[in-house]
Specification:
The complex is a heterodimer. Chain A is mainly α. Chain A has helices at residues 2-28, 34-39, 45-54, 61-73, 87-122, 127-141, 144-158, 181-187, 191-228, 231-238, 243-280, 286-296, 299-327, 329-333. By secondary structure, chain B is mainly α. In chain B, helix 4 crosses helix 10. The radius of gyration of chain B is 23 Å and the shape is elongated. At the A-B interface, helix 1, helix 6, helix 7, helix 11 and helix 12 of A face helix 5, helix 6, helix 10, helix 11 and helix 12 of B.
Chain lengths: 334, 302
């Protein structure tokens, strides 16, 4: 197992190097020089020369690249042009909101998608199967931000059941030791704060979880259909095991193997989708931070944000691969 | 169905035509495909003939209608009402199909062509070329799709061309990997070995023996990519990275604008939103039906 993990970690090296080169070149290719971006449009040539020297922009490209890798590896992502605060600080403040949202969205998608897909496979060819297939196709065809707007309009504006923006009620006084608001409420024993934070998560999580829900339901159905015709399932049935045992032990467990990889791949979708969801629901996470940075042309934030999300994505997939190796010995040994 | 039954069905199935004629036969019988084709047909027709179909131009303002505030709903003259600037919503939705159609088709063609070249080269040459190309694709895949597109448009500046490039580039690795995998699977086939043994040059083996057989998953993916492209374009404009030309309305942009009038004029959000859903659904339905129709495992089974 250790060898599998080590080999998998080695595969990460070229990806990280490539990623750093890509993002480094991306900054160079931006319209206007970084010095100009820092100083604004009316900077004097002398000031630009000075800044270029100060930031090492007059050095050869490979020196600049090595410097960039060095500072980034030390966790320095630069300073936001707009707020003048370190990108890392802002990242730390905002990341919990996005994690909270993504976890809530994934919980929603999995808790509905897996049973739906499994039931559809069990009732292959029935109305239930067809409806869930069409439903999942509609799910993947619906843009997140459209669903988010509709949910906001119906449940927040019209019915007033749920809050429409932010992470907690503005009037609520709650302490936040971890910045994960639901967790904070539970840890500090402030139940009303925890409930309030949860209520704020419901609509965004449904909006963000809709596409993963559709994809998980479909792949669970497909995987369960594949497994249903395996010889070992027939054998299990033939030797008289109760259908429920066959369902849970032989079909469900094996069908979950491909589905677990699919779930890992959805992380990228969640991170992309967070940009749109957080914008609609005014959630102060990484997504809305990036969207604002785009609007303000705050390049250090865009760059740091994209690099960071890419790193999260790569590491989540690494974890998924490793756990896949743990649950599926065939992968590990090959 | 038991294994024996499945085998009987397979034996019964007459060896009908080739993969494609059988696929076509199955597509015509799939209600999902028919619905998908009709959605896409409407979408493409409206996209091409928008100026002829639309009652007003995309920029005609009817300011007298919004004098009493935003925004009057559907009426006989304005099927879907007018937007906050007094422009006919129906006409703008029709024109919106244009942007989505052009961007979708160009972006997917870019991705398909580049992906074919990269994936084909990697899959057929193998070795170090394969490793280098595929690691490069992995790097591109490491950045979540929409974020990658956002980065590219932010770098190049928002314009129609740059949006096409951004959406196209983010899709390249998907096609490249798909085609490479497919080629690797085909390369070991007996007919390829036979062609090589007879002395057919490598390039024509690739062009006339491997590619035609490896292409079907790529076609399925291409159809599905069109759906994603439509949604991603809308997402980009929703974030303010859309085509800045007001004469080319875009569904995502219309949604953003409607955000402020949600309370008084929800139809301004619902109509362009539904337009996106219906066109994306059309391509997804076709892609799904194509996948089933082209799946060799399902051949001969009904």
């Amino acid at each position: 197992m250790l060898r599998f993990i080590i080999r998998r970690l080695f595969l990460l090296v070229p990806i990280l190097v490539g990623l750093s080169i890509l993002i480094f070149l991306w900054i160079r290719a931006l319209p206007g020089s970084p010095a100009q971006a820092l100083l604004g449009e009316r900077a004097t040539p002398a000031a630009i020369t000075q800044i270029r020297h100060q930031y090492g922009l007059d050095k050869p490209l490979y020196v600049q690249y090595l410097r960039y890798v060095d500072t980034t590896a030390h966790g320095n992502f630069g300073t936001s042009i707009v707020s003048r605060r370190p990108v890392t600080t802002e990242l730390r403040e905002r990341f919990p909101a996005t994690v909270e949202l993504s976890v809530a969205a994934m919980l929603f998608a999995m808790s509905l998608g897996i049973p739906l897909g499994f039931l559809a496979a069990k009732r292959y060819g029935t109305i239930f199967d067809h409806v869930s297939l069409v439903g999942s196709l509609i799910g993947v065809s619906t843009p997140i931000f459209f669903l988010a707007l509709v949910l906001k309009y119906v449940f927040a504006v019209r019915l007033g059941w749920l809050p429409s923006i932010g992470r907690q009620d503005v009037l609520l006084d709650a302490s936040h030791p971890t910045n994960f608001y639901v967790l904070d409420g539970l840890v500090t024993g402030n139940w009303s704060a925890a409930w309030d934070a949860t209520k704020h998560l419901i609509l965004p999580a449904i909006a963000l979880g809709s596409i993963p829900l559709a994809i998980i339901a479909r792949s669970t159905r497909a995987a369960a259909l594949d497994v249903q015709n395996e010889d070992y399932v027939r054998t299990a049935r033939a030797k008289g095991l109760p259908p429920r045992t066959v369902d849970s032990r032989h079909i469900f467990r094996n069908a979950m193997l491909p589905v677990s990889t699919i779930i890992g791949l959805q992380t990228g979708l969640l991170l992309s989708g967070a940009v749109l969801t957080e914008t609609v629901f005014a959630l102060p996470g990484i997504g809305s931070w990036l969207a604002n940075a785009i609007f303000n042309r705050d390049y250090p934030v865009i760059q740091g944000g994209i690099l960071f999300t890419a790193l999260v994505f790569v590491f989540v997939n690494l974890l998924v691969d490793i756990s896949y190796g743990i649950i599926n010995p065939r992968i590990r040994l090959s | 169905m038991s294994v024996a039954q499945i085998e009987m069905v397979e034996l019964d199935a007459a060896p009908s035509g080739g993969l494609w004629s059988e696929a076509w036969r199955r597509l015509r019988r799939n209600p999902g495909a028919i619905v998908g084709f009709s959605f896409v047909a409407v979408f493409v027709f409206v996209g091409i003939f928008a100026p002829l179909v639309a009652p007003y131009s995309a920029l005609d303002q009817h300011l007298e209608l919004i004098a009493k505030g935003c925004c009057p709903g559907p009426s006989a003259h304005h099927l879907f009402g007018v937007d906050d600037l007094g422009r006919d919503e129906f006409s703008r939705v029709l024109y919106g199909a244009r942007s989505s159609l052009i961007i979708g088709v160009v972006a997917v063609s870019v991705a398909l062509t580049a992906g074919l070249v990269v994936g084909g080269t990697a899959g057929y040459l193998g070795g170090i070329v394969d490793s280098v190309l595929m690691r490069a694709m992995d790097v591109m895949l490491a950045i979540p799709g929409l974020l990658f597109a956002i980065g590219i448009v932010a770098m190049l500046g928002p314009s129609l061309l740059h949006i096409m490039i951004a959406i196209g580039v983010t899709n390249i690795p998907i096609f490249a990997r798909l085609l490479r995998g497919s080629i690797l699977a085909q390369r070991e086939n007996d007919f390829v070995l036979a062609a090589r043994a007879v002395g057919v040059p490598r390039r024509s083996i690739l062009a006339s023996h491997i590619l035609p057989n490896a292409i079907s998953p790529v076609i399925v993916q291409g159809t599905l990519a069109l759906a994603t492209a439509i949604i991603d374009v809308a997402g980009l404009s929703f974030l303010g990275l859309g085509d800045p030309n007001p004469a080319r309305p875009e569904w995502g942009q219309m949604l953003t604008n409607s955000n402020n009038y949600l309370q008084n004029a929800p139809f301004l959000a619902i109509i362009p939103g539904l337009a996106i859903v219906v066109s994306a659904l059309g391509f997804n339905l076709i892609g799904d039906a194509l996948r089933e129709a082209l799946d060799p495992k399902l051949r001969g089974r009904e």
